[in-house]
Every structure is written in C-alpha cells, then in structure tokens.
Amino acid sequence: MAMKIRLARGGSKKRPHYSIVAADSRMPRDGRFIEKLGTYNPLLPKDSEDRVKMNVERIQEWISKGAQPTDRVARMLEAAGATAKTERSNPNRALPGKKAQERAAEKATKEADAKEAAAAAAAAPVVEEAPAEEPPAEEAPTVEAPAEEAPAVEAPAEEAAVEDAPAEDAAAEEKAE
After folding, report:
1. Number of neighbours of residue 73 by Cβ within 10 angstroms
2. pLDDT-based confidence at 16, cuts 50/70/90?
3. Alpha carbon separation from 60 to 25, 79, 81, 170 (Å, rounded)
C-alpha cells in the first residue's frame, strides 16, 4: 500500500480550506484518509501563523514509515524547516509556448531581412541613387504640366478683365470731365 501525505480540499465554493492528511494513494483526493496531520488555509495572509498548521512529529513518523509527501506538502515542510530543501529543476518552465516561439521566429526573420536590405542599400548607394533620381525628375514635369496649363487657360480671361477695367475707368473719367 503506497502512502501519501497530501492536501484534501474542504470548504465551500471560492473559499478553499485544505487538510493535510496521510492517505492511501489509491483513494480519492477528498476521500478516505488514515490520519489528519494539519491544516492549510490559502485565504489567510502569507505571514499569518494560522495559514499552515502541521503536526511535524507525526509527519516525520509517516515519512519514516515510507509515506511520500506531495510537492506542495514538501514545500510546506521545507518552509517550516522540518525537511532539508531540495533543488528542483524544471528546464521547460521558462520556455515560451509554441505560438510565442513561432512569433519570435517570424520577428527574427523580418529583422534579418530588414538588416540585409539596409546593408545592401549601404553597400551600393551610387548604383541605387542614380536611377532613383531620374524617375522623380520625369514624374515631376508630368505632374506640374497640368498645373501650368490650368493657370494658362485662366490667365487670358483675367488679362481681358484687367484690360477692360482700365478702359472702362478711363472712359468713365473722360465723361466725367
């Protein structure tokens, strides 16, 4: 029979309260246990003495008989100083998920492409600048030509109006004299 020292959940919905129990590993989490060894109330502040209460002597006795504490209970025992701290190694803990790794790879390829394009532009500036200057020079007159034509069409009408106005003014002045 494999013995475990584990947490059995009690309390109501959204208000958990755990009992630290010695139980057969084949029994349900909140089911039958052999001995209650303490309590754990996660709702209390971390520095509260009532957050974790354990009968350390009985837990040590069960461990000597071959009972295995779960990871959470082992951490509580380490915090209480009942057992020596163990070094835990979880190398995958800090690794991002698959989608995050894919996004990082795409971003790295885009940055590499941008750096290559910048390096290529810096390596051959003379070849790229000469053709780049010519098309805007060709495009500029075509864009300006309609702008020049429009005022040219309006200019004669304005000139005629300007020419007529002095003539009318001169005629009006002659009649007044």
Report:
1. 24
2. very high
3. 18, 15, 12, 123
> What are 49-100's pLDDT values in tens digits?
889 999 889 999 999 999 999 988 988 888 888 777 877 777 777 788 889 9
CA dihedral (154, 157, 160, 162) in degrees, to 10, reads -60
Confidence of residue 119 (pLDDT cuts 50, 70, 90): confident
> What's the per-residue H, E or C state across the chain?
CCEEEEEEEEEECCEEEEEEEEEECCCCCCCCCCEEEEEECCCCCCCCCCCEEECHHHHHHHHHCCCEECHHHHHHHHHHCCCCCCCCCCCCCCCCCHHHHHHHHHHHHHHHHHHHHHHHHHHCHHHHHHHHHHHHHHHHHHHHHHHHHHHHHHHHHHHHHHHHHHHHHHHHHHHHC
pTM attached to this predicted model: 0.50
Domain spanning 3-80: which superfamily? Ribosomal protein S16 (3.30.1320.10)
112: tokens are 């590499």
Question: What is the domain partition of the chain in residue ranges?
Answer: 3-80, 94-123, 131-172
